[in-house]
Amino acid sequence: MTVAAVSPPAVASPAVGKRARRARRTELILLLLGMLVVAGYLAAVEANLLDQVTPDFWVPAGILAVVYLAMHMVVRLRAAYADPVILPAVATLNGLGVTFLRRLDLGKAKAGDRADYPILSGEGGKQLLWTAIAVGLAAALLWFLRDHRTISRYAWTLGFVGIILMMLPAVLPARFSEVNEAKLWIKFGSFSIQPGEFAKLMLASFFAYYLVRKREVLALASRRVLGIDFPRGRDLGPVLVVWLLSLLVLIFEKDLGTALLYFGMFIVMVYIATERVSWLIIGLVLFFGGAVLAYVLGGAIGGPFANFYDRANIWLDPFSGDRAYNEGYQLVQSLLGLGTGGLFGTGPGAGSPSQVPEVRNDFIFAGMGEEIGLFGLTALLVLYLLIVVRGIRAALGVRDSFGKLLAGGLAFTLGLQVFVIVGGVSRLIPLTGQTTPFLSAGGSSLMANWLLIAILLRISDNARAPLGAPGGMIRPPVAAAPPARPPVGTAAVPAGSVRPAPPNRPAAAAPAGPSVPPAPDVPAGPTQPVGPQPLNPTAEQPTVRTPGNDVAAADVSDDDDHDSGPDDSALDDEALGGEAPPTEKIDVNAPAPKENS
Amino acid sequence: MNAPLRRVGVVAMVLFGLLFANLNFVQWQRANDYRTSQYNGRKQVAEYDRQRGVIQAGGKAVGQSIPTDDNLKYLRQYPYKQAYAHLIGYKPVNGAPTGVEYLENEFLAGTSDQLFADRLRDLWSNQKTPGGNVVTTLSPSAQELAYKLLVNNNNDAKVGAVVALDPTTGAIKTMVSIPSYDPNTLTSHDTGAAADAYDKLANDPTQPLLNRAISERYPPGSTFKVIDSAAALERGYTINTSIPAGPSYTAPGTTHAIHNAADSICPESQVTLIEALTESCNTGFAQLGVTLGPQALTDTASAFGFGDDSLRIGKPDADGGLPVAASQVGTLTTASGPDNPVIAQSAIGQADVAMTPLQGAMIAATVANDGRQMRPYVVEQLLGPDLTTNYYKATPKQLRVSCSDSVARNLQAMMVSVVQNGTGKKAQIDGYQVGGKTGTSQNGDGQKDHGWFIGYAMKDGKPVAAVAVFLANAGSGGSSEAARIGGLVMKAVITDRGGK
Fold first, then answer.
1. A257-270: per-residue pLDDT in tens?
2. In this model, does residue A460 exceed pLDDT 80?
3. How far apart are CA B489 and CA B148, in angstroms?
4. CATH number for the B215-378+398-496 domain, one of 3.40.710.10, 3.40.50.720, 3.30.360.10, 1.10.150.20?
5. What HEC string does A107-150 produce?
6. CA distance B496 to B488
7. Given B65, B180, B222, B402, the catalytic residue
8. Residue spans per domain, chain A
9. Which residue of B has its CA nearest to A412?
């Protein structure tokens, strides 16, 4: 798997600029480094658990490397400009998760059987397969979703399905949905999924779509209190609806973490869309008010609030009385595991993570913490933070409001999920049953989070690509003014545009399938048809702005500094504020004639 | 939208900063508290990494650790379950071990200083040498028979104890207490199940966890007449000295009359001391007690071990061991002088007199050993992990001289008479000279009487076994059943030691 092997199209293309090639080379190197770390972890586990390192200790890391390199190829082909750090960071976390689960399997196996423990059996083997499936799904999404704005066309469907998925476990009887006192699952026999993991993605997509449409209304201020603009009362509706949904989740799914996740995601997206701090304040007050109310009600009347009340009490004092042996057992064991690990940990394979209940799921961070210590966990946190920050960077860099909101919302939600579960197992906040993204055993979480990563990669590709390059450019809108439209069949774009025909695309992709309605520049790139601001009902392509302008601006921007890139707010304002001739209104719900993915 | 996005990025960093700060708190600042917390099971995991040594009785493993598949690598197991439970004890995953498991915990675990060289070897071989092995004094066939006989006693007593000693060394050959328990339920690696099993036993009104052989005291009844006899012999009586008897006796200062167990027992006004013991003459001994006075009774009882609250059973020549409840005579005086009504009752083993079954066996053993009382012990030998290196061998230790050997010989003659001609006939063993004393003691109103037997066996003038059998609330015939059990247990002890 060498650069050369995948390079020919890229090299052949002056369009896939140096920047893309540099990014992909960085990604490849980081990816291989990450797999070296995973292989090292595997070797350390064997040294400690087997008293020897078997010659084939590296095989899981090798399989993972093949899977990730396949993903890397897809990124090269379909998102050449994507952020080079996200994939290696995720791959390393995921690889360490697989390795740690394998380490738990080895620990459980009889001492004599450990050396020959098959790669694909046990929890670790299952996780390895799930990883391959999840990465495959992410690769497919990246391959077929040529433009993230396409998602907005299914926003209502996604939102509807998302809410159903989110509420389903709450409605189902406990035996179909309850695991460890949290109703977050749908169980069919031995198979179970956590629909909330997928709901997270769908709801983020819907929120992004909805908020782009509603942002002006939500941004309207009615009164100013203490220097903060507060929205009009009647505009609180949607926020209150989501707040109520979150509280329902809190009560009926007995899960503070999930509620915090959904509500936090929504409030942050509202804030990003409206730039009104007041929404953050309203959100925080509503959430904490709700949580305190649930606690008080739990103490006073019990019922559906009792579970939350108990969890909060465990959080407040897990060691009190014989709580450490009963309801507080999990948290206490988690803390003891973390404490035993101390600064440097016992070393991979040398601890007793199986002392911590559910160490393969919710408590994997505590289990790893015992063996890799504070230093190792800090490294894991840094990897997570890198993904979050790079996701937010993609949001900063991308030019369309929907992309900004989606990337920002997803990246923040990922970070929030890490905060909720890691904070829970380390007793920063009350413990709730969330998976630890990319580490915890389980297919739902892996698949959903890898899909999230695919979306972030797609958006970051869009954000980082020079305007002239395929994938990243803002093309003339579908309904753009005729002067900007090239003659049918021409690969070139309007005069003044520096966009060349993207020859790096495989020739086979160029026809873009027979289903594609003839569009002026279909051959130029399959992602072309969706307009730059399809989400905004008033969106219009200002004729004064040609892609060429943007290209110039984008080229100025540095690889790593999107802040100096195109002035997105200007773009947004332009898009929002510009008069919209009726004919140029693009309704995302209207059939999109140019969709071709 | 970029300004709020950047601020959201800052919020994410702040959240991660909080996580990082909190992890510092948990993994650094509080690390030591958590590492050494009583709730931290890793201590146990480390402990169970090394195979705990075997506890043996006569070549049998009565406590052993077998390899498991779970993360505690060995399971502590007791193959004979209830039979050895009280003295061997158990080693739970959480909490303190009991019995011999407690006594030699460090040696068994392999962490004692004595095993330092073995641990040092581990560093080279990269293996965990098992812990050391403890050889107990117990005689397995006597122990198991005693348990079986106690549980299936003919008087349907639910509570009881058997103690057998080697009179010449003090080695404990048998120590059984019923009701017993299965220690295997308490060593389960499922600590929740183990805790539940413990709670169930601890809350059981029959107190199965209690080792009645050393921890409980019961009124000794007529077995205390051996002490009376010793006191009398020490003070110039012979076995043929006549003492006042009669069908009933009312001590001065009370209206409560003491009777004999049957009208046929010593109705005559005078009986010899040996006859009095053989028939178990209550009126005779009550009057003897009053005649001898409180000091004589208390002194002689103390000489035989009553009132000794420092007795521990473990190694004979080392401090420490399992504590033994001090048997007691009670207060025999009032402010104005001897409390004759109480003395009369105490002389026949009632009133406040109370002794442990071990004390009963020690009386018999001391008599058999010509008055020299040996310290009871249970740890015979400590063997290294290789089962050959000897780290300790018990040296029997004399606790005290309870009486002169001439007094002891006279007592032997009297006790042999009891088994030959009197109440203890069921304790007879073919080919051995058996001496003993039965006892029936009242235990409050409305409850059936306790049955006792204390005795010893000799071969060619050399004592080979001593025993005490106690059957709580055994009712009529309880002492006779105790004598039967005592004889059989002693016979098993003798068989185990090869008839010698």
1. 777 888 888 889 88
2. yes
3. 10
4. 3.40.710.10
5. HHCCHHHCCCCCCCCHHHHHHHHHHHHHHHHHHHHHHHCCCHHH
6. 12
7. B222
8. 3-144+317-464, 207-306, 467-597
9. B12
Specify the amino acid at residue A285: V
What residues of chain B lie within 8 A of the CB of A352, using their CB?
A: 41-42, 45, 71
Whose tokens are 């009280």? That residue is B86
- CA gap A125, B63 in Å, rounded: 40
Q: Is B139 a catalytic residue?
A: no
Which value, to the nearest 10 degrees, does the dihedral of the CA atoms of residues A112, A118, A120, A122 take?
-10
Every domain of chain B and the residues it spans: 215-378+398-496
- Token pair, residue B208, equals 């199965």
pLDDT one-digit tens code per residue, B353-369:
999 999 999 999 999 99
Instruction: Measure B195 CA to nearest chain A CA, in Å.
Output: 10
pLDDT digits (tens, 9 = 90+) for B99-158: 999 988 888 888 777 777 777 776 666 667 788 899 999 999 999 999 999 999 888 889
For A480, the token pair is 């753009």
- What is the enclosing helix (H) or strand (E) of B383? strand B379-383
Q: How far apart are alpha carbons B354 and A568 in whole angstroms?
A: 96
Alpha-helical (H) ranges within A16-121 are 18-50, 59-78, 86-108
Nearest-Cα residue of chain B relative to residue A52: B126
Closest partner residue to B22 among A108, A343, A426, by Cβ?
A426
Rounded distance between C-alpha atoms, residue B400 and residue A579, angstroms: 114
Place of tokens 């052989």: B213
Looking at residue A87, its pLDDT comes to 96
Q: Do A355 and B42 touch (CB under 8 A)?
A: yes
* Parallel, antiparallel or unpaired: strands B242-244 and A228-231: unpaired
- Rounded distance, CA B441 to CA B475, Å? 10
Tell me the residue type at B175: M
Separation CA A258–CA A242 (nearest Å): 13
Which of B492, B485, B499 shows the shortest CA–CA distance to B162?
B485
Q: A169: helix, coil or strand?
A: helix
- Identify the contact set of chain B against chain A, taking CB-CB distances under 8 A: 1-9, 11-13, 15-16, 18-20, 22-24, 26-28, 30-35, 37, 39-42, 45, 69-71, 126, 195
The 8-class DSSP code of residue A558 comes to B
Query: Which residues have CB under 8 Å from A5's CB, separation 6+?
Result: none
At residue A297, φ and ψ (nearest 5 deg) are -65, -40
Q: Give just the sign of the alpha carbon dihedral B77, B82, B86, B88.
A: negative
Check CB contact under 8 Å for A396 and B69: no
Which two tokens mark B125? 């071989």
Nearest to A418, CA basis, from A388, A447, A442:
A388
Residue by residue, DSSP assigns A492-544 as: ---TT--PPP-TTS-GGGTT--TTSPP-TTGGG-TTTTS-SSTT-TT----TT
Q: Are A338 and B33 within 8 A, CB to CB?
A: no
Q: B326-333 long-range CB contacts below 8 Å, 24 or more apart?
A: B327/B217, B327/B220, B327/B301, B327/B354, B327/B355, B327/B356, B327/B359, B328/B217, B328/B352, B328/B353, B328/B354, B328/B355, B329/B297, B329/B298, B329/B301, B329/B302, B329/B353, B330/B354, B332/B294, B332/B297, B332/B298, B333/B294
What is the number of other CB atoms lying within 10 angstroms of the CB of residue B95?
14
Q: Is the confidence at residue A18, as pLDDT, over 50?
A: yes
CA gap B16, A384 in Å, rounded: 9
DSSP string, A204-240: HHHHHHHHHHHHHHHH-EEEEETTEEEE-GGGGHHHH
Query: How far from chain centre, in Å, is Cα B54?
Result: 21
* Residue stretches of chain B with pLDDT short of 70: 122-127, 445, 499-500
Long-range pairs, A160-164, Cβ under 8 A, ≥24? A161/A202, A162/A198, A162/A199, A162/A200, A162/A201, A162/A202, A162/A203, A162/A205, A162/A206, A163/A199, A163/A203, A163/A245
